[in-house]
């Protein structure tokens, strides 16, 4: 029986082999492209729903701002403000169907990447696979809204309770840490759902945990690291001019896609190991 060190060594070697065999850099670039096409339609849907929810739009941007590089965030905010300024009141009817379809392209691309990780073909019909992508998109919107509501209302409730006892400043310091923990838990739930449902393989929910843990930690660290690097050591606007913000956004989406796909490869590795041990 192999010990944990052998398993970790085998995992690293196999992952390195799979990175080359499955062309993870190329797949990540493709997925980043679809993420870019899906990002703003997804934001359109969320901000179209805002009049029906007690959430200011700056709270939604605050969630993204916590992880996105500064120049990418400026580009997102600029486009979101234009969307809000020229928003069509009739969008929440027929027009939202096309927007959801566009937003689901990113999820549909993730499904393809995960199927490749498990070395399976997509046997589900086009309607089923696309319908699943749309449902997962709706699920992500719902979880994203919950991720906004919990910090906003949790902070207000906490301030009300702790101010009664004179511990407002202590609570605010604690809340900064708790908000990061809440974001990590929500990310973990999102990734678990993707790794469990998206591949064309019958899996147990817990079999998605290794990749979900890796993707959660990896995405947070890589996003904060890129944000710190761009904010302190690099100025893409000087090098690339007006398209610098677009390049930073694409770089962030590329790294995010690489981490997500690598998490799927990790789950596929453990799935194969479990079948071998049975």
From TrEMBL:
Query: Which sequence ranges form a coiled-coil region, renumbered to this chain?
Result: none
Give the keywords, sorted: Cell membrane, Membrane, Transmembrane, Transmembrane helix
**Which Pfam families does this UniProt record tie to the protein?**
Virul_fac_BrkB
Top-rank taxon: Bacteria
Instruction: Give the subcellular location.
Output: Cell membrane
Q: What is its main location?
A: membrane
Q: How would you describe this protein's topology in the membrane?
A: Multi-pass membrane protein
Q: What is this protein called?
A: YihY/virulence factor BrkB family protein
